[in-house]
DNA sequence: TCTACCATGGAT
DNA sequence: TCCATGGTAGAA
């Protein structure tokens, strides 16, 4: 007996294997990849038909029939199905979760139909002269229609006819109303892009990419180019080549929210050939975009992380811009890395993948050094502007000279100088809120969140202490909840406090602050950036979002208040992230006139991540970093899996973790595959759940992953598995 | 995930 | 004895 294998569309790991259903004859042949409605228990559920199977003998359970077909054409191509399976096994998540990444509507059991609209078709016997003179607009529409022969209701409304008038004309003799699929095709002027000249260096990088696009080769290129070297130009050339071959190009950008340079340039150059995916799109806009890609009305999709799951086959090119950016790794739910998925999809679609960055991820650069990726380098800035001058300030020294303020002498001087020259400055501080923690002077106890193991942060707005890990907030206590003393003091400086201090020291400066507290109100972040770009502010103060890809012409100076905030995070990639952040933010200075100045304050002035970023020396940094990782077996010279067990009972969490370690111990080969833990995490408790962790590190984790995928560990409650944590 | 089922246990 | 709660196996 032939049965259909259906994955129930529920994010439950326990339902990871497909369920068998019969296909009733009246539904005909259902292609794999189609969404179907099936009975499950006593409810009706949505599922994805992933294939067929022959049952040798009658099963012990009842085979129920599929109730309905939800997609006219299968939503999932076979490539999407196989990529989802790969993702599920690699990242140890449920197949249904992996599949749902490719869908755009989380509402279930909704069938999707291609958008249709009504068209009025004029028949030979239509006589507008019979329409009474009194009905002026209808008569005009009649003659207008006769001229056109056929027109859609939508287009007539655009031409100034109201809906009642059109409705009335539709009833007249000689007018036939037809339903047609919406056609939104607009002509694209390819010349715009073709005329974009490339420098010789760019041309050299572009040649092999072009060859790979035309020959449909799944090569991966690492395009390493300093900021301002014209990577976008190469992306656009490659995309236009892909478009000329009538295949789809996917362009991934880090965070689309903040007015993204690349998006604007693509839209300007390619017009309606570009479809922009971002989280603010409505469901119908998403469907419409997808439909455009499927009909090849548009060939380029540009968007953040999730755009890699564009439901399309025939991908001809994938570009990951700023490939080192950490926003490509999803940190909640399914913790996939978009760069990894891009690689899989490029292989399955036989198309090249371009990874572009000024500071490539250590992993990508390593693979390029191994000859697995092809390294392409842009060493010169297009207009040959010099890179900014970077000064490193040792804050320990500042303190020795009695300066306890957040601004070193050099920093104050740079601010004063920039303001004096009527130029703009960006100041980076990786801490939001007012103060970093609140502590009692008597007993030395910091005030902690009652639900999480973290110090609460004072936020001026609302005069409240907030926890950055949960929604908990409370007013600042008058007396210490621990010892009753009144000596409560604020320590450390967040963006809010620094803003205040800046304003006090430089009363005339116009200061804009950009951090999560400001961005939560939608559109406000973009507005601040736009205003700053328009010169309405002198200083832009903010968390790392000020460091990313904006091109402000008036900015000549950049200040980093604490380079250590990222460096001190206990992660193997802390140095890499520090180097990236410093290099990125320094790159904001002097983009147009070339006299950029940067001041970096730090307590670790001798750390190589800081020294190498001062010298704009990526390769030097890479060499030191790869050595450090080689010694410790960190990625890319080994892979890691992070297990987090959460439980409201600390002992239970520990017990579960120990059970997991015991089960995995058979794979332990010291030096080859190591298991660390179970240990309490740095932050012991979040939202009243205790956190215990296990870390597995090894040169090859495939077999241990396969084991976990098929064992009880996979469905263990309260366990979160993070493959390739960053 | 959702649901039905069973076990436990406190209140009546 | 009743019902409420909690934990858990199974769904085709």
TrEMBL record:
CC cofactor note: Binds 2 zinc ions per subunit.
Helicase ATP-binding domain span: 212-378
Keyword ATP-binding in annotation: yes
Pfam families cross-referenced by the UniProt entry: DEAD (PF00270), Helicase_C (PF00271), PriA_3primeBD (PF17764), PriA_C (PF18074), Zn_ribbon_PriA (PF18319)
Binding site for Zn(2+) 2: 449, 452, 467, 470
UniProt cross-references to InterPro entries, sorted A to Z: DEAD/DEAH_box_helicase_dom (IPR011545), Helicase_ATP-bd (IPR014001), Helicase_C-like (IPR001650), P-loop_NTPase (IPR027417), PriA (IPR005259), PriA_3primeBD (IPR041222), PriA_3primeBD_sf (IPR042115), PriA_C (IPR041236)
Coiled coil spans: none
The protein's assembly and partners: Component of the replication restart primosome.
Protein name according to UniProt: Replication restart protein PriA
Lineage: Bacteria, Bacillati, Bacillota, Negativicutes, Veillonellales
């Amino acid at each position: 007996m032939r049965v259909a294998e259906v994955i129930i569309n529920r994010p439950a790991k326990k339902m990871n294997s497909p369920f068998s259903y019969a296909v009733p004859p009246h539904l005909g042949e259902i292609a794999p990849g189609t969404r179907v409605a099936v009975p499950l228990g006593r409810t009706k559920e949505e599922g994805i038909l992933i294939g067929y199977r022959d049952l040798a003998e009658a099963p012990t359970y009842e085979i129920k029939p599929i109730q309905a077909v939800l997609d006219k054409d299968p939503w999932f191509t076979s490539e999407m199905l196989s990529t989802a399976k790969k993702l599920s096994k690699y990242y140890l998540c449920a197949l249904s979760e992996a599949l749902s990444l490719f869908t755009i509507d989380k509402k279930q059991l909704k069938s999707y139909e291609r958008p249709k609209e009504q068209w009025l078709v004029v028949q030979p016997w239509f006589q507008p002269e019979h329409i009474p003179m009194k009905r002026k607009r209808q008569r005009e529409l009649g003659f207008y229609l006769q001229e056109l022969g056929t027109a859609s209701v939508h287009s007539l409304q655009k031409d100034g006819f109201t809906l009642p008038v059109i409705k009335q004309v539709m009833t007249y003799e000689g007018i036939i109303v037809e339903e047609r699929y919406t056609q939104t095709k607009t002509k694209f002027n390819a010349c715009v892009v073709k005329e974009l000249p490339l420098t010789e260096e760019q041309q050299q990088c572009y040649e092999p990419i072009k060859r790979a696009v035309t020959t449909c080769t799944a090569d991966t290129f690492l395009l390493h180019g300093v900021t301002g070297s014209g990577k976008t130009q190469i992306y656009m050339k490659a995309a236009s080549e892909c478009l000329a071959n009538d295949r789809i190009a996917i362009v991934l950008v880090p965070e689309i929210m903040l007015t993204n340079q690349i998006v604007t340039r693509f839209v300007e150059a390619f017009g309606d050939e570009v479809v922009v995916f971002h989280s603010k799109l409505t469901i119908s806009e998403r469907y419409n975009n997808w439909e455009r890609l499927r009909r090849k009305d548009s060939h380029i999709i540009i968007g953040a992380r999730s755009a890699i799951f564009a439901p399309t086959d025939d991908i001809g090119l994938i570009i990951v811009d700023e490939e080192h950016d950490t926003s490509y790794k999803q940190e909640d739910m399914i913790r996939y890395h978009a760069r990894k998925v891009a690689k899989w999809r490029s292989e399955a679609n036989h198309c090249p993948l371009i990874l572009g960055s000024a500071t490539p991820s250590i992993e990508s650069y390593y693979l390029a050094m191994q000859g697995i990726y092809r390294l392409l380098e842009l060493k010169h800035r297009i207009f040959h502007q010099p890179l900014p001058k970077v000064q490193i300030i040792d804050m320990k020294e500042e303190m020795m000279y009695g300066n306890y303020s957040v601004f070193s002498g050099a920093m104050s001087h740079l601010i004063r100088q920039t303001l004096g020259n009527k130029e703009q400055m960006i100041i980076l501080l990786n801490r939001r809120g007012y103060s970093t923690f609140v502590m009692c002077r008597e007993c030395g106890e910091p005030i902690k969140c009652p639900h999480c193991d973290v110090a609460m942060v004072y936020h001026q707005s609302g005069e409240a202490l907030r926890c950055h890990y949960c929604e908990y907030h409370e007013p600042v206590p008058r007396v210490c909840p621990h010892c009753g003393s009144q000596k409560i003091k604020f320590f450390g400086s967040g963006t809010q406090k620094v803003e205040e201090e800046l304003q006090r020291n430089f009363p005339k400066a116009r200061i804009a602050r950009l951090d999560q507290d400001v961005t939560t109100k939608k559109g406000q972040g973009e507005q601040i950036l736009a205003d700053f770009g328009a010169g309405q502010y002198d200083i832009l103060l903010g968390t790392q979002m000020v460091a990313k890809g904006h091109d402000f012409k008036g900015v000549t100076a950049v200040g980093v208040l604490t380079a250590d905030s990222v460096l001190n995070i206990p992660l193997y990639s802390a140095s890499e992230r520090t180097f990236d952040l410093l290099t990125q933010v320094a790159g904001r200075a002097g983009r147009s006139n070339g006299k950029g100045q940067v001041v970096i304050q730090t307590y670790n002035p001798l750390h190589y991540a800081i020294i190498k970023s001062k010298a704009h020396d990526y390769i030097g940094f890479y060499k030191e970093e790869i050595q450090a990782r080689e010694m410790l077996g960190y990625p890319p010279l080994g892979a890691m899996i992070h297990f987090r067990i959460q439980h409201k009972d600390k002992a239970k969490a520990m017990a579960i973790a120990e059970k997991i370690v015991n089960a995995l111990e058979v794979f332990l080969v010291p030096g080859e595959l190591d298991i660390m833990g179970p240990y309490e995490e740095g932050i012991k408790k979040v939202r009243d759940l205790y956190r215990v962790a296990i870390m597995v590190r090894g040169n090859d984790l495939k077999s241990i992953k396969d084991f976990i995928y098929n064992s009880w560990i996979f469905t263990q409650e309260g366990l979160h598995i993070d493959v390739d944590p960053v």
